[in-house]
């Protein structure tokens, strides 16, 4: 779940907020019956996008070189950095670029910094997803085998996730270390990492292994998981980073943006939870495991909101049988 998604992504369903704010609809008709259009599936389709040009300033290969080639000549760490290169190339592959800076914004310095921060966000997400796949025992991610499931990798992927996280801060300092917004970006990434880890903790302790306790699957808990595990890093992080780089650092502006973006994160995760069960893996790029993992997903929360006492007992028994759980 975690994250910009993608299954692994992670996420909520939320509040009826202040004046003029629209509450997220928890009705199945309001969310699940919306057509999953072709454009949405195209964005998620494995390999969607254009082939990268090696000389493009957008090329992921360029940033892989920045993170590895200056160290490959050092015999003491050469093998380790070669492993880092392999991790980067597998877990942070080429992405389709949907937006290009406006002509007035294409100064070489601002463009390089913007692209570097974009790749920092990609690596940040890859760090979370590699770890999340291990914890969820997932099989596929983005249309390919999960990194830890590849032959010869296994639990070594835990350290590989740490390498991805470290790469974020190395790249950020290399490209933005002298910029006036650098400390704001650094604090943003650190705070978002902490928030996401809190969300992951909520996700794990809400559905402990070999236990069935449907009372844990409340709307309030679901919203908290989604807000912290998915919405902050998938939605608020990239927009907040762009705001800081554009010189927008006022608390009010960021709070207003955050309120909107966290709502978007909820909608996103509700749809992602639906696709985890009903989506076509050929289109989503992953095999859904929320039911097998006994996750606090939107589907089970919505189910519990609607069931009769007898139906709830049936759900408990079926879940207990599926997980060989204790406590019934």
Question: What attributes does this structure have?
Answer:
328 residues; acetylation; EC 2.5.1.10
Model description:
With 328 residues, the protein is mostly helical. Helix content is 58%, strand content 1%. The chain is built from twelve helices and two strands; from the N terminus they run αααααββααααααα. Strands 1-2 form a two-stranded antiparallel sheet. Strand 1 and strand 2 form a beta hairpin. Helix 8 packs across helix 9. It is globular, with a radius of gyration of 21 Å. The two termini are 27 Å apart.
Overall geometry:
globular
> What's the total count of β strands?
2
Strand-residue fraction?
Answer: under 5%
Low-pLDDT stretches: 1-55, 96-100
Number of helices: 12
Rounded Rg: 21 Å
- Span from first to last CA? 27 Å
Brief digest:
This protein has 328 residues and is mainly alpha-helical. It has twelve helices and two strands.
Topology:
Elements: H1 28-31, H2 38-44, H3 60-68, H4 78-91, H5 108-136, E1 140-141, E2 144-145, H6 157-176, H7 182-206, H8 219-245, H9 251-278, H10 281-284, H11 298-306, H12 309-323
Antiparallel strand pairs: 1-2
């Amino acid at each position: 779940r975690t994250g910009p998604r993608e299954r692994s992504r992670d996420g909520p369903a939320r509040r009826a907020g202040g004046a003029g704010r629209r509450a997220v609809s928890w009705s199945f008709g309001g969310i699940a019956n919306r057509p999953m259009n072709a454009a949405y599936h195209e964005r998620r389709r494995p390999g969607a996008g254009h082939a990268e040009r090696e000389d493009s300033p957008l090329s992921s290969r360029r940033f892989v070189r920045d993170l590895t080639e200056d160290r490959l000549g050092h015999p003491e760490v050469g093998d380790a950095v070669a492993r880092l290169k392999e991790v980067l190339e597998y877990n942070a592959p080429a992405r389709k670029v949907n937006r290009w800076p406006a002509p007035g914004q294409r100064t070489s310095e601002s463009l390089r910094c913007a692209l570097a921060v974009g790749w920092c966000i990609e690596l940040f997400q890859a760090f979370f997803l590699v770890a999340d796949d291990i914890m969820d025992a997932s099989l596929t991610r983005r249309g390919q085998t999960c990194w830890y499931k590849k032959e010869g990798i296994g639990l070594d992927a835990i350290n590989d996730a740490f390498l991805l996280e470290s790469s974020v801060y190395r790249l950020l300092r290399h490209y933005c270390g002298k910029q006036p917004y650098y400390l704001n970006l650094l604090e943003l990434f650190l705070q978002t990492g902490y928030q996401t880890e809190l969300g992951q903790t909520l996700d794990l302790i809400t559905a402990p292994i070999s236990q069935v306790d449907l009372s844990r699957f409340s709307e309030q808990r679901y919203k908290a998981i989604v807000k912290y595990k998915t919405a902050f890093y998938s939605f608020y992080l990239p927009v907040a980073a762009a705001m800081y780089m554009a010189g927008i650092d006022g608390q009010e502006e960021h709070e207003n943006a955050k309120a909107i973006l966290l709502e978007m994160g909820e909608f996103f995760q509700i749809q992602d939870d639906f696709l985890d069960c009903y989506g076509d893996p050929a289109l989503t790029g992953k095999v859904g495991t929320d039911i097998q993992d006994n996750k606090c997903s939107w589907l089970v929360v919505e189910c519990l909101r609607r069931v009769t006492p007898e139906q709830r007992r049936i759900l408990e028994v079926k879940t207990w049988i599926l997980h060989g759980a204790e406590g019934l």
